[in-house]
Amino acid sequence: MAPSWVEKLTPSGPQGSELLQQERAQSNVPVEKLSEFLFTKEALDRQKRILNVLKSEKAFDKSANYFDGRVERFQTALARAKKLQQLTIKHKWSQDEFMVANELITEPGPYGLHASMFLVGSSLPILLCRCFTLTKWADYAP
Fold it and tell me: 72, 51 in Cβ contact below 8 A?
């Protein structure tokens, strides 16, 4: 049991969450319109649709993450990667929809490096250019 003087302690001044609430209450920025301007309505609808699919799957529940050890976290990541691939096939997601789902998971997966180097369109030309340069250089090397 805590001493009585500890129980009488109160937080000093407004906390960060309270200050943020006050600032948001004073703002007159239309959040939905700003979001649509920044991301487009189609992208926001796609994100909401994919998020609902991910929320309905037990594999993406993160409540036990804090208590899992290294091995369990890797096993969970493998299960999530497998489930993500199954959902991609089931819902016939495009590459963009797959990337949105992967970003919504917000955790590194076991195939992240492979996907970023070999599957994603923006990284592929860079990798190919590097390979071509090395191959070309090897042709001229003594």
Answer: no
